[in-house]
Structures
1.
Amino acid sequence: MTSFSDFGLLPSLLKTLKTMRIFKPTDIQGHVIPLMMSGQAVVGVSETGSGKTLAYGLPLLNHLKALEESGDPVKRENAPRAIVMVPTRELGEQVAKVFKSLTHDTRLRVRPALGGMTLEQARRNTSGSFEILLATPGRLVQMLEKRLIDLSDVRLLVFDEADQMMDQGFLPDTNIVVDACPVDVQLALFSATVSTTVQELMNDLFSSAEVVRSKGSGKVVSSLKTKNLTVEDGKRWPVMEKVLSQRVDGSTIVFANTREQCDKIAKELTDKGYACVVYRGEMDKNERRANLKKFRDGKADLLVATDLAGRGLDVPNVARVINYHLPKEMENYLHRAGRTARAGRPGLVVNLVTARDSRLIANLEGNKPASLEKKTEHKGKPRVGSTKRFNDSRGKSGYAKSMGKKK
């Protein structure tokens, strides 16, 4: 599919896309949208910044608006027809912004019930009738237990950023939510990577789903430039200062592996006259959100963060990622690198490399023996091959039975 008009979307959605100047579907959108439009359960594995929200958002909105236009609008209170599950409030707010822009012409209603807001606020948000619920698993389970929400009319259930959701231990909550939905609910799951727990969820609920892996999944994008800078005798700061002296057209995220490292880097930056904000776990949620807002609004050019910021956050104008401390796992590296060079824009990742990082660097360079020079520079590997689409070995059955719903 080379155009959104090829998918059979409603005129109201095509009008919105035209207004937003979005004309050509991305790789993941081109394969997922037709599957979801046909009612198929879908698992989408795609690199960050590839357009997963639109991939599920457009068919979801199309289905709900079509029901309304056929004379079957939502009438019951507290009973949404679609749920989008996200792991954190910050990610939920990102998705809400995308849906707000997409519903300009369809006028469908999106209501949030997210962790970090009070239960009373979530209750008020979901009072009355509306079409789409945007929720974190823990908050949604709490509302189900208190009978504040009714999922008996849900037609579509989407798990967004499933890898982060599962990393936070939400697998039992996701099963509770699925069990509260109708048996023939259409399921969709999207993730940048497939961890062990995500695979468990796929095996449990998506055994008959169509799995789509974009050609860039598990790789850095081709518009990403990488610099590996060797750190000698553990002296990272002199290398860091040289990096910061090289200006970029945009903001920078500095990654550390622990909260303690994060705070130490932030103090060093502040002492040296660099304005920065911190984003990590175990800090006041309001402070964390305020810091992220400052960074998003351009009031701070440097964000010092742990891997909490590496998962799913979409911050415009991030031109550079600095791995002050490299992660041990390739999966975490890919998430960090995915904060820049998004949606085809150029980006730079700078790695401060010590001897203990040789294994990761070797993997990044294609499993070649690691030879760390003073400064090595290379482009992200071009993505090769085509999108892979395949069925689970158990095959597909009819529409209602192929939703992947656990009996």
2.
Amino acid sequence: MIWEPERLDDQHHLTEADPGGMLLAVAASAAQVRTGYRVAVEAGLPGLAGQARPRAVVIAGMGGSAIAGDILAAVCGRGVPLPIVTVRSYQLPGWVGAADLVIAVSCSGRTEETLSVATEAVRRGCQLLAVGGADSPLEAVARQASAPFVAVPATGQPRANVWLLTVPLIVAAAALGLVQAEAELFEEVAKELEAISHRCRPSSESFINPGKTLAMELAETVPMIWGTSPLSAVAAYRLACQLNENAKYPAVFGELPEANHNQVVALDGPLAQRDVFADDPGHGLRLVLVRDTEEHPQVTRRRDASARLAHERGVPVSELAAEGEHPLVRMASLIGLADYASVYLALGYGIDPTPVSAITELKARIAE
């Protein structure tokens, strides 16, 4: 597979190489926000306002569904009066009990790990809320437990439905008083994603298209992606995962200040040594800083110092900056761009971004 940047401005190639319609799925992010809000309201989630606040909120999910829990925790922020934890496993932590709310999220409603946790939550007497595909085993678990269930009309891959799965969680958190999120906020998020889709549209040429530009920067490098706040760290993790699944591409995720205590040393390693005059300079490191408007002052100093350190060693640096005031808007501004970049990177390599053959094969082997 060879990187050919001219492919990104070849409209025929962008259509033919994306038979699963991943670019269209990313472009539908704004519609997902609006639909997610509608189905959450129809499922009665605003009615949670009349219930006692749980001791903790535990989100159970895997892959593209689990990231919804990470987004929820980041949007609620450090001031939230209870822990919000994402569980990516078959089992609940031992401390989870009847005083806690477990939110099971599965795009298909059939994810075995999530079903295991949801069933365990019911057995322990936890409050349960489920979000997933209609007429699924997850809905059956929720109905049997007389728990709220939000049926989401998801299509395609779970990672392409992140906003459809996330918005009901934000609506539930708002009802519980964990975050300020009125109907107007979700429309603002949708408009932010629409603006990103306009700037990153396939017909927009590479030199003015931020999604294509980022893809070209990442190509033929090993991205080391660092978030500079809890919120931008989630966006950084999302970018790494999207590069993995859409572009079948490796990426390293980190968060400041922790990455300054380990990953930064890679700037002195073999992948940081690039011979720009060689016929094939190799796949060297690229530092990607995912910035937020709300950073600890010391983290800002670390970010600037890290960028200088990389430049001095010949390691290129890319920066993504969050935009907007509300945390959910800032998250959308980062994830929207990241999603486009990952798809364009795949298409620049001539890779179909939709299939995840290795995951499918792994599941088949486990089922044997």
3.
Amino acid sequence: MSERKHRAAIVGTGAIATAHAGALAACDGRASLVAVADIDLGRARDFAGTWNVPAAHGGLTELLREHEVDLVHLCTPPLLHTPLALECLEAGVTVLVEKPATLSLAEFDTLAEAERRSTAHVATVLQHRFGAGARRLRRLTEAGALGRPLLATCATRWYRDEAYYAVSWRGTWESEGGGPTMGHGIHQFDLLLSVLGPWAEVTAVAARRARSVDTEDVSMAIVTFENGALATVVNSVVSPRQTSALSFDYERATVEVEHLYGYTDDDWTLTPAPGHEDMTSLWAGSGGTAPSGHQDWFSAVLDALDRGEAPPVTSQDARRTMEFIAALYASAFTGERVRAGQITAGNPFALRMDGTGAPWQRVRIE
């Protein structure tokens, strides 16, 4: 594997950009941050000063015109992801897009088609796939060491108050694409999907219970996987006791993780089934202690690029997750079960995540 130094830029210098700058700073010189951009040029300059970046710009077009870069970290609000990612791909620059990658499945397919025409790649930032615990669990699952997966639960129960939604682009279908299903729980259920593989069917509900937003603030789903496993998925921004929790029941053990915004190896537990006590030593002896976060995700990105491969999470990986989101909304808003592959081009839920319309759109929260 030939290793080279990659020239990177960050577009959008809000809160999440700090995690990207930190990952770049910690990559042992494999990449350098050469420029940043933000529609608020003053904020871009402040960010550049904080991270010792030589150039700050007011937009992506100017940045690409004045700098040769290999990677763009796209940290803008979701509304801007697709047009800016398309601009990067047309310029032959690989783009690393914060979640959610696009506002809709149709937008995602447009992005994937542009990637096929480009010499560059697009990857979605879903960093919880990259901690040691998740890697270990996927490895043991694929090897069949834990037996068949039978049942899983996935809960993202977070708390976001009205002040959080005072930011203009939050809580709307037009600019954020959805509520906690789209922008919060995606981390946990993407990890669930990465472990259990292709999903087959979704039955869901969604509601606006407390926040004065256009989108849902709670959703729940029952999921059937192609391998026969069943799972529940809960997404919430109205839960004062915040937690992010996944539990996987296999024939020979239960594997669980509970954290909030990022896990360490200490957050994982394994409970062996009776007669399978050897599972404990198998889990402990399978290597790695890295936490989940942008640093290990970015290291995996650089490894892939140095091998001449598409960086993780690839378009194929991310599309499975985006299709799951569209199916959850479609089931919740139509009352029907939705199968994988059912939301085809032209379907209202492919064009917008709220599809035929959220049932509370004309109901005011008092």
4.
Amino acid sequence: MRLQDKVALITGAGQGIGAATALKFAREGAVVVACDINAASLNAVTEACTNAGAQTAAYCIDTTDRHGVDEVIASVLDRFGRIDVLVNNAGITRDARLQKMTLDQFDAVIDVNLRGVFHLSQAVSHGMVARGSGVILNASSVVGIHGNFGQTNYAASKFGVIGFTKTWSRELGPKGIRVNAVAPGFIDTAILSTIPDDMLRKMREQVPLARLGTAEEVANVYAFLASDEASYINGAVIEVSGGMTL
């Protein structure tokens, strides 16, 4: 198994891509530390990971709260001794056109999607540097590369994540730590449940593969990048979009 005994902390693990990533890592032999702001949502995820044979821990975490983040990281280190992989998956949307976007909408997305990624990455980096190894994986988006109508805040945050990735790969690469980003396109998760069928049809038509992606397909990429098979990949931004940006 490609992630055997690696301790992997995954934020936003309660649903969607985060939950699929937690289960994929569990099946690949990782010790899964599942984190989400919604504690109740973690029950099914941790049960599935345990049933897959993984050692599992769950933490309720608000990634924007640095004190809370530091407490969780300290607890994980005390319990498992190290964190080998961090998957910064937690993220939110608060969409509106530029002229109608409120400051609260803007700030909420920047706080979770940028500040939260900074908090977790900085908190785990010290231990990784001390050991001379580690992997940080950041969730960007094709929106962070190409923009999208009505998503000023989200596009800015996901472009910022790419900036984090490029910078940290330069800073931490010489210390044995790889930093990469994944940029999903249209992925069939619960967030699409409120989108009308005609809009979903139009979304599929934008993709050369003529379908939406699955959370498992994104999780597969995270698992590869977390593994030693990706040992010479650093500073990359990998689109998982079915070719929608061609």
